[in-house]
């Protein structure tokens, strides 16, 4: 993005207002924002690792655009993968500034489709094409994009969800499979790593022996939904990176349906990091119960981190794995 933004500002005709804050919506960690005046930039990023990375670089950071109450001089939208979320971000940007709304995205994130759709509604600049992506801009026009706004509430099968969160349009079948196969006894202290909007929590809390359940989720929007979906007083909510989260005490059972994508690419290392985190968090007699796509090669990591590994169920798409007794060498 940095090349496209620099070209737009230097040669492409993009002019930023001389004063006022500039919001950048959902940039990924490592995105180079140096073409913008740092002291005027606010990064809006609800995903914990990326949010923390920009905060560490000294940027002002918030988790949602509506936390900024003053009018903005400009808004830069870095397109997310989910179409509904992208449209909701663009509609929010249009209503938050009277200056330019700048849109940047990779071709794999649907930038061409967004550009085509926006041209049907408002006057858009010629795009700057570089490095497998495009950047373009327009003047804010909230009315023209009113129907792209996120719904005030989004409910699916009785659960609150939101555009862009994992499994926003329905219960994830892998999580559903895991919920149906949890051990009868989970112990007193349980953690759900990558808890999403809280579906698995209800199955865990059905065990009366559970005294505390830690829901650990990196997506602030998903965790907000979980706070609505799960009201049991035994639950504690943590906006955190599950791979580095520190539990308040030893955990008896970890349940998880770990993520395995980085952008559009399959990345089994994410799941492996979740497994290692579970081993670190568990008590010596603890257990990990997880679901994964059948083709993902998690067993070697499980064998490194635990003394006993069993496949306890599944189907042609998913496998259910039970890992017991974390290896002391990995603690």
Describe the structure.
The protein has 331 residues and is α/β, with parallel strands linked by helices. It folds into two domains: 2-148, Vaccinia Virus protein VP39 (Rossmann fold), CATH 3.40.50.150; 156-330, 3-Layer(aba) Sandwich (Rossmann fold), CATH 3.40.50. The protein has nine helices and 18 strands. The strands form four sheets. A seven-stranded mixed sheet has the order 3-2-1-4-5-7-6, sandwiched between helices. It has a seven-stranded mixed sheet with strand order 12-11-10-13-16-18-17. The chain has a two-stranded antiparallel sheet with strand order 8-9. A hairpin with a 3-residue loop joins strand 17 and strand 18. The chain starts with a helix and ends in a 5-residue tail after the last strand. 43% of the residues are buried. The model has no long low-confidence stretch (mean pLDDT 94).
């Amino acid at each position: 993005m940095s090349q496209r933004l620099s070209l737009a500002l230097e040669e492409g005709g993009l002019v930023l207002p001389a004063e006022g804050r500039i919001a950048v919506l959902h940039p990924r960690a490592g995105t180079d924002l140096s073409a913008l005046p740092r002291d005027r930039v606010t990064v809006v990023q609800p995903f914990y690792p990326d949010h923390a990375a920009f905060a560490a670089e000294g940027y002002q950071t918030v988790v949602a655009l509506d936390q900024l109450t003053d009018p903005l001089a400009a808004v830069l939208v870095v397109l997310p993968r989910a179409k509904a979320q992208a449209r909701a971000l663009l509609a929010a940007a249009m209503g938050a500034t009277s200056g330019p709304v700048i849109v940047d995205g990779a071709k794999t994130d649907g930038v061409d489709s967004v550009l085509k759709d926006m041209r049907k509604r408002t006057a858009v600049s010629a795009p700057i094409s570089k490095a497998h992506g495009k950047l373009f801009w327009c003047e804010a026009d909230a009315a023209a994009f009113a129907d792209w706004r996120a719904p005030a509430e989004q409910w699916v099968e009785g659960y609150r969800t939101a555009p862009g969160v994992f499994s926003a349009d329905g219960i994830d079948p892998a999580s559903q499979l895991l919920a149906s196969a949890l051990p009868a006894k989970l112990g007193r202290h349980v953690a759900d790593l990558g808890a999403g909007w809280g579906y698995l929590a209800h199955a865990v809390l059905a065990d009366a022996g559970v005294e505390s359940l830690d829901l650990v989720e990196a997506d602030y929007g998903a965790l907000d939904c979980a706070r609505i979906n799960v009201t049991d007083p035994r639950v504690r909510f943590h906006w955190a990176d599950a791979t580095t989260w520190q539990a308040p005490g030893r955990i008896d059972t970890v349940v998880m349906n770990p993520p395995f994508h980085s952008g559009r690419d399959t990345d089994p290392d994410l799941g492996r990091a979740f497994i290692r985190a579970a081993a670190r968090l568990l008590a010596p007699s603890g257990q990990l119960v997880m679901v994964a796509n059948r083709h993902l090669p998690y067993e070697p990591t499980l064998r490194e981190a635990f003394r006993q590994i069993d496949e306890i169920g599944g189907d042609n798409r998913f496998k259910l794995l039970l890992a017991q007794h974390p290896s002391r060498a990995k603690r």
